[in-house]
Design goal:
Layout: H1 6-14, E1 39-40, E2 47-48, E3 55-57, E4 63-65, E5 90-91, E6 100-101, H2 123-126, E7 135-138, E8 141-144, E9 155-163, E10 169-177, E11 184-186, E12 193-195, E13 214-215, E14 218-219, H3 231-287, E15 298-300, E16 308-311, E17 323-326, E18 329-332, E19 338-343, E20 349-354, E21 362-364
Antiparallel strand pairs: 1-2, 3-4, 5-6, 7-8, 9-10, 11-12, 13-14, 15-21, 16-17, 18-19, 19-20
Length: 366
């Protein structure tokens, strides 16, 4: 590497490769390599070389262990000790061969390597997230990012090719300039510095927006910026929550009420049916008091045990049923009236309904 001036090497390394060399990135340490294959990938602009991830290609054509690193966790090392970081005032180039002094304004630098350039005297005023301590590597030359409103400026547009999960490719153009950021940007047509645009204005690129986020041709809030919620939004949200809770409670109350009404109607219908059935039994016995009733559960009981007798005719026990022969029997009907049944000697009975005497006297047919 000492055979060529360092600035010339940087220019050579900054030229994108047009074709991939055979065995690119696979040559181990002490293997043979070609320094002319060093360069940038034409799609991703990533630095590539014949050597593997732990080596760089020397001017003598051999792969040697890297002498510095840029990443905290360098790729390809595993448990192997990694090379050191460069101290302040120096930088580690793309080939990561050895630390180099920072470059002054006008010196050649590698693509998008703002950290290779030395900072200006007023770097505190020019420093931003879009440069390195106020310096920027623009078109492979170190410059200060200090152009102000109305000043002439220069633009660098770099196209990066990305790959989707389906394998399809897309192109993303990154445009950078030497206007002071984040206040100004370089207009691509007029080539003068203009004020950045606020959220909501039309734009053609991210650099035109103060938020550095141009979405669908309009400056929008940058991703990750917290949204400020207005007072009326809190009020509307609270009212919506109360409305949903009230609607839920009212809906449940109406549903339970309908279920209770339906259950109450079922119970009422059941008791009406039972009452009608009982009244039908009373009416049947009223009309035919001397008929045998093998299927009824209750029969009229005599008013006094000494004046009533029953003959064994129960069909449930192998007989024909019960036959009542008593002098007089009474039973209370619904409404408070009383039915008095008086049997006669010829087998016929006399039925008489009296006033509201309240007495029920039933005995089971057993």
């Amino acid at each position: 590497m000492g055979l060529l001036p360092h600035s010339l090497l940087l220019l050579l390394l900054s030229i994108p490769l047009q074709t991939a060399a055979a065995g690119l990135g696979t040559v181990p340490i002490n293997g043979t390599c070609n320094i002319l294959n060093n360069g940038l990938d034409p799609d991703t602009h990533r630095f590539v070389t014949d050597c593997d991830a732990t080596g760089y290609c020397t001017a003598q054509g051999t792969c040697q262990p890297k002498g510095c690193r840029r990443d905290v966790f360098a790729f390809g090392y595993g448990s192997t000790p990694q090379p050191p970081f460069c101290p302040d005032g120096t930088f580690c180039p793309d080939e990561e061969d050895a630390c180099q002094p920072l470059l002054a304004v006008g010196k050649p630098c590698q693509l998008d390597r703002d950290d290779e350039c030395a900072p200006p005297p007023n770097w505190q005023d020019l420093s931003s997230s879009m440069n390195s301590n106020g310096s920027i590597c623009l078109s492979f030359v170190c410059q200060y990012q200090n152009a102000t409103l109305g000043s002439a400026c220069m633009v660098e547009n770099v196209a990066y090719t990305g790959f989707e999960s389906s394998g399809a490719t897309f192109v993303q153009v990154v445009s950078r300039d030497n206007c002071k950021t984040p206040q100004y940007y370089c207009d691509g047509v007029q080539r003068v510095c203009l004020h950045v645009k606020p959220v909501g204005q039309a734009c053609t690129g991210n650099k035109e927006c103060g938020s550095y986020h141009c979405e669908n041709g309009v400056c929008d809030l940058a991703p990750g910026v917290p949204r400020e919620v207005s007072a009326w939004e809190y009020v509307v949200t609270g009212i919506g929550i109360l409305a949903v809770m009230t609607g839920t409670l009212v809906g449940l109350w109406i549903l339970h009420r309908r279920q209770r009404d339906s259950r109450r109607a079922e119970i009422a219908a059941y008791w009406r049916e039972q009452t009608s059935y009982r009244n039908s039994l009373f009416a049947l016995h009223h009309a035919h008091p001397t008929l045998s009733r093998p299927n009824t559960m209750y029969a009229l009981a005599p008013t006094t045990p000494s004046v009533s007798s029953f003959t064994d005719t129960d069909t449930l026990r192998g007989r024909e049923g019960w036959t009542m022969s008593s002098e007089e029997s009474k039973v209370d009907l619904v409404g408070g009236s009383t039915v008095v049944v008086t049997p006669a000697d010829d087998g016929k009975a006399t039925v008489k309904e009296t006033g509201p005497e309240k007495r029920r006297d039933w005995t089971a047919l057993i």
